[in-house]
Amino acid sequence: MPLEEIISTLRELNRTDKLRVLYILIFDLVKEESGLGIDESAIAGRTFEVWSPQASIGVAETLLSALKAEGGNA
Amino acid sequence: MRESERYNYTPVVNAFGEIVLRPGLPISLSYRGRATDSSGLLDSGAEINVLPYRLGIELGAVWNSGLATIRLSGNLARFPACPLVTSASVGKLPEVKLAFAWIQTDDVPLILGQINFFMEFDVCFYRSREMFEISPKL
């Protein structure tokens, strides 16, 4: 398909799909230029930490008590 | 009409070099006369709010080993944390008080979790439209 046709088709996309195309192309460029290909051998054995905290027992109460002491809505 | 603010998801580069979208909320924190602006990760799966060490220092908070100790789980379990209550404002919405687990590491984003960010604000996520809407609790 000629480039002009592709561009014309892309312009008909909604905002979300345009952004999706943009991200895909940027990601492809980053991969090509940095050599950051994602393959299983690259991630095997590595640990990727997840931030989302699950508090231990009593932590929620501790924070709510601190909030109450400062006049917040506990 | 209920006050609300809309924000777009923020594109960030993850550990794989991929560009992904995250719900980052511009938020202003203040503590005893000092303020700092930051972007908080809206994490409805997080039980509590978490404040990175650097932001607490920027707010003038003093780490005191005599404060109550908070023990988090998962990958944050190895860092000490203590409670810190700050004022917080989002856009033009009314200011609220937020209680954080102030954690002694910067290897974590500012996390806005169930206690007590989601107790103060209602948030609607429209991921397919890459935006979210936030309003004060009813």
| 3D shape of chain B | globular
Arithmetic mean pLDDT of chain B? 91
Number of helices of chain B: 2
Q: List segments of chain B where confidence is low: pLDDT < 50 over at least 5 consecutive residues.
A: none
Spans where pLDDT lies below 50 across 5 or more residues of chain A: none
Structural class of chain B, by secondary structure, is: mainly beta
The shape of chain A is: elongated
- Helices and strands of chain B, in N-to-C order? EEEEEEHEEEHEE
Distance between the terminal alpha carbons of chain B, to the nearest Å?
Answer: 12 Å
Average the pLDDT over all residues of chain A and give the rounded result.
74
Can you summarize the main beta sheet of chain A? none
The Cα radius of gyration of chain B reads 15 Å
What's the structural blueprint in terms of helices and strands?
The complex is a heterodimer of chains A (74) and B (138).
Chain A: H1 3-11, H2 15-34, H3 40-43, H4 59-69
Chain B: E1 5-8, E2 10-13, E3 19-22, E4 24-31, E5 34-42, E6 49-51, H1 53-58, E7 81-89, E8 96-103, E9 110-112, H2 117-120, E10 121-126, E11 131-136
Parallel strand pairs in B: 5-9, 6-8
Antiparallel strand pairs in B: 1-11, 2-3, 4-5, 4-7, 7-8, 10-11
Descriptive account of the structure:
The complex is a heterodimer of chains A (74) and B (138). Chain A is an all-alpha fold. Chain A is built from 4 helices and no strands. Chain A is elongated and about 65 Å long. The mean pLDDT of chain A is 74. Chain B has 138 residues and is mostly beta strands. Chains A and B meet through α2 and α4 of A and β7 and β8 of B.
